[in-house]
Amino acid sequence: MARLNEMPQLRKGDELYLTGEWLQTLVDQVSDYIFVKDRKSRFVMANRQVAIDIGYSDFSELLGKTDMELHPQEIGSGFMKIEAEVMATKSPQIDHEEFLILPTGRRKWFSASKFPVTNDKNEVVGIIGICRDITERKKAEKLQQGQNKVLQEIASGKPLDDVLETLVLTIEDQLDGVFGSVMLTDETGTRLMYGVAPKLPKAYVEQTDMIEVGPGMGSCGTAVHTRQSVFVDDVRTHELWKDHQDIMRNYDMRSCWSVPFFSKDSRVLGTFGLYSTEVRTPTGHEKRLATEAARLASIAVERDQAESKIRYLAHHDVLTGLPNRQEFKHKLEEKVEISRKSGEPVAVVFVDLDNFKFVNDSFGHTIGDKVLAIVAERIKSVLAENHEAIRFGGDEFVLIVEGGSALKEDLLGLMSDLRAVTTKTINIGDLSFHVTCSIGAACYPEDAQDAAELLKNADKAMFEAKSSGRDGFKIYDQTRPEKSVNKLTLLEEMRTGIENGEFFLEYQPQYNLVSGRIVGAEALVRWQHPTLGRLMPGEFIALAEESGLIVPLGRWVLDEACLQNRQWQEQGLTPITMGVNVSVRQFRDSGLISDVTAALNKSGLDAGYLELEVTESLLIQNADQAVRIMDDFRRIGLKLAIDDFGTGYSSLAALKSFPLTRLKIDRSFIRDLDFDENDRSIARAIISLGRELGLNVVAEGVESAKQQAFLASCRCETVQGFHFGRPMSATRFGKLLAMTLTPLDSHFGRMERRA
After folding, report:
1. How crowded is the C-beta side of 311, counted as CA atoms within 13 Å?
2. How far is 415 from 348, CA to CA, in rounded Å?
3. How far apart, in whole angstroms, are the C-alpha atoms of residue 701 and residue 721?
4. Helix H segments across 520-612?
5. Backbone angles phi, psi at 96, to 5 degrees
C-alpha cells in the first residue's frame, strides 16, 4: 500500500501514462489556446484550437513560426513585445486582455496568461501560454457601452447623423462581415433617403438614395411598405430585389435584413438595415441586435424631429406659419447692407389691423386667431418671390420688399393690394364680417440711413395712417411734420404713478398636478391710471423698458411681492414660491442683486420662496454674463425660471449651462393641445427635455380640463392658467390659498370662483 505522503506514479502501460503523443491528444481537447514558445517566440508546441483559428489543419504547420509571420504586423509585434518582457523579467503576465483578427476576418478577445519556462540553471528558455476566449463577454460590454453612448448623445442634443453613426458602428462591432445602415422616410413617407451608412460603398449609397417605398423595392423599401421586418438571404436572386440585381452584382453584399422603426403615433420613420457578405439568413442574435438598433433609432429620430419642430416654431409664428421677429432685425440689417453695396432699393411695409381688440372681445380669441391666420394667407397671396413677410406682433405684420418693387411708386400699388385683400369679407362658420388695416412704408436709402431708422420710419408712416382715420396707407415723408404719440406725457405720468402708488399687483396661482395644491404664484403688475383707468402690462411695459423706468418699477414689484408672500406666511398659510418677472433692462442693471437682497431683507422672506423669471432670448443674448448673474442668485438661495420657453430658441443644449430650477412652457404651445397633434408633440418634447435637465416644468395658459389631462399624462409637474385661476387680488388669493390647505378635488375652477 502506498504511503499517504507519497504521490502515485503513472507507468508505461497505465491508461493515462503521458507520452508526448498522449499529452498532445489531451491538450487538443481543450477549447482554450495552449502553446509553448522558445526564447525567440517561435512555436514549439500548440494545441489544435490555435492551429485551426490561425488557418492550419495541424499544429505541426505552426512549428518554428512567430506571431509576426501569422498575424498583421500591429497585432504580431504586440504579442512578441509582451512575451519578450515576460522572458526578460521572469515574471508571468496574468489575465491580460488580447485582441486577435483571424484570417477569416473574425475578431476574438482573449484573457491571456503567459509564464516563463526555465531550465535547471534557472535560465529562461521560452514561455508557456494559456488564452481563454472572452469574445462574448467583451461584445456584451461593448454593446452596453455603445447603447449608453447613443442615449447620451441623444440627451445632449448631438446632430442626428452623429447619433445614428454611433448606433450603426456599435452594431457592426458586434458582428463579422456585416455592415449596417439607417434609411429615413421623407416628409411624404413615399421615399427612403439614406441617413447613415459609414461602411457601405459610397456609390451604392448614392444609387439607392431616395428609393421608392413599395412591394418589390428591396428589403428596406418593402419593410416600410409592409411595416414588418424583411430578411432576404440572397439579394442577387430574391424576387424583392429583381429590379435592383444589376446594381447588387457590383458590390460584395449578398444578404440584406431590414427592420422598420416607428414613432409613438405609429408613423414609419425609417429602417435599420444589415448587409452580409455571405448568402444566409440572420441568426436569432443578429435579429435581436437589429431590433434593438431600430428601437434606439426611433428614439433618436423622433427626438430630432421634435427638436426640429421646436426650432422651426422658435423662428416662426405658430398661428400663421410666418417667420416671427426673432431674427428680423438681423435679416433687415443684412438686406440694407446688400442694398448699400448694390444700389438696389429695399423697403419696409408695416401692416397693422385696426381695432383688432374688438374682434377678440366680440367673438373670442379662437375666432381672433383664425382671423389672423386668414389675414396672413391673404398677405402672402400678394407677395412676389423677393418679398418677405413676418408676424411682428399680435396684430402687426411687417414686409421686407426688395428691388424695383421697393420704389415708392410701386409701393403704392402693393399697399393698395394689401389693403384690398385684407378688407375682403371674412367668413368663419356662421360669422361674416370685415377687418380693416393701416399700412405704412419707408424706403432705403431715401428715407433712412440704416435698418433701425428704416423700421422706425415705416412704423411712423403706419401710425400716421392710423391717426388719419385708419383703413388707409401712407409712405413716409420726412418733409411732413410728425404727429406726437404722447409717449413723453405717458412717461412722465408713469414716473409720477410709481411715486404716488398707482401701480398694484395681481397674483395668478400655480398648482401641482399631482398633489392638487397651490405651490406658487406669479406676480403681475397693473397700473390704475388716474384718467385712462386700468392699464395692462402690454400698454406700458415696453415704454418703461425703453426709458429705463422699468428698473424702479421692477424694484417696487420685488418689494411688494416679497412683502405679500411673507404676509401670507405670517397668516399661517402654506408657504409658496412667488414668481417675479425680470426684464432685459433689469437683468443688465448692476443693482439688480442688491435690489433683490434688499427686498428679501425688508420683508423677512426666505430666499427659497422667491423665483425670478427671465425669458429665453434674454439668456441667449449674453450667455456668459447670464450664467455669472444667475450663479450669484443661486448662491443666496433664489429659484430661477426660464419664461415663455420655445419662443426665443437659440440652443437646447445651451440650457445645460444655466443654473435654472424651472422651465415655463409658453402658452402658444398649450393653447391648441385639445386638437393639434403638432402642439402635443412639442409639449411632450419640452416636458421630456425639462425632466432630463432636472427642471420643474410649468405649463402656462392652461384653459381646459382636456389640456390638464394631457399635461398630467405627460408628467408635467406644475400648471398655471385660467382653468385654475385668473390673476387676482392679494386678498382673494389668500382666501384661495387657505381653501387648499388640503388637496383639492378635480374641480379646480370651482374653488377659484368661491374665493
Report:
1. 11
2. 11
3. 4
4. 541-547, 550-570, 584-588, 592-603
5. -90, 130
pLDDT per residue as tens digits for the range 610-622: 999 887 656 665 6
Residue 418's nearest CA partner among 467, 463, 382, 370 is 382
Three-state DSSP class for 403? helix
The label of the residue with cell 377678440 reads: 360
Residue 279: the pLDDT is 94
Number of neighbours of residue 608 by Cβ within 10 angstroms: 12
Per-residue pLDDT for 270 more than 80? yes
Query: Does pLDDT of 471 surpass 70?
Result: yes
Task: Report the length, in residues, of the chain.
Answer: 755
Beta pairing partners, 433: 426
User: Rounded to whole angstroms, how far apart are CA atoms 597 and 589?
Assistant: 14
pLDDT digits (tens, 9 = 90+) for 85-134: 999 999 999 998 888 888 777 888 899 999 999 988 889 999 999 999 98
Q: Kindly tell me if the per-residue pLDDT of 755 is higher than 60.
A: no
Backbone CA torsion sign across 237, 239, 241, 246:
positive
Query: Does the predicted TM-score (pTM) go above 0.85?
Result: no
Helix residue ranges, H only, 244-363: 245-248, 284-315, 328-342, 356-363
3-class DSSP assignment, residue 212: strand
Residue 646: other Cβ atoms inside 10 A: 23
| 538's grid cell | 402690454
pLDDT > 80? residue 469: no
Query: Between 325 and 158, where is the model more confident?
Result: 158
The three cell numbers locating residue 747: 374641480
Q: Residue 6 has what pLDDT?
A: 45
Q: Kindly give the interhelix angle for 623-635 and 592-603, rounded to the nearest 10 degrees.
A: 20
**Average per-residue pLDDT for the chain:** 84
Q: pLDDT band for 690, please (50, 70, 90 cuts).
A: confident
Q: pLDDT tens, 26-84?
A: 777 888 899 999 999 999 888 888 888 888 877 788 888 998 988 888 888 999 999 99
For residue 502, the tally of other CB atoms under 10 A from its CB is: 16
CB 552: neighbour CB atoms within 10 A? 15
The whole-angstrom separation of Cα 161 and Cα 495 is: 55
Task: Give the number of other CB atoms < 10 A from CB of residue 748.
Answer: 22
**Contact by Cβ (8 Å): 652, 157:** yes
pLDDT of residue 486: 58
Residue 311 has pLDDT above 80, yes or no: no
The distance from CA 280 to its chain's CA centroid, rounded to whole angstroms, is: 40
Q: How far apart, in Å, are the Cα atoms of 280 and each of 223, 232, 283, 393?
A: 18, 8, 9, 62
Cα distances from 410 to residues 251, 405, 416, 419, 495, in angstroms, run 61, 5, 10, 15, 44
Q: Is a pLDDT exceeding 80 seen at residue 645?
A: no
- Cell (9 digits) for 303: 427626438
What pLDDT, on a 0 to 100 scale, did the predictor assign at position 723?
Answer: 86
Which three three-digit cell numbers place residue 327? Answer: 431674427
Q: Which amino acid, 511?
A: Y
Residue ranges of alpha helices (H) inside 100-258 are 135-155, 160-172, 202-208, 218-226, 245-248
Preceding omega of 445 cis (within 30 degrees of 0): yes
DSSP state of 574: P
Percent of the chain with pLDDT over 90: 37
Alpha carbon distance 668, 513 (integer Å): 20
- 575 preceded by a cis bond (ω within 30 of 0): no
Whether residue 310 contacts residue 682, with contact meaning beta carbons closer than 8 Å, is answered with yes
Rounded Cα distance, 384 and 744, in Å: 56
Distances (CA, A) of 161 to 112, 300, 628: 38, 10, 34
DSSP 152-176: HHHHTT--HHHHHHHHHHHHHTTSS
For helices 705-713 and 677-692, give the axis angle rounded to 10 degrees.
40
H/E segment holding residue 126: strand 124-133
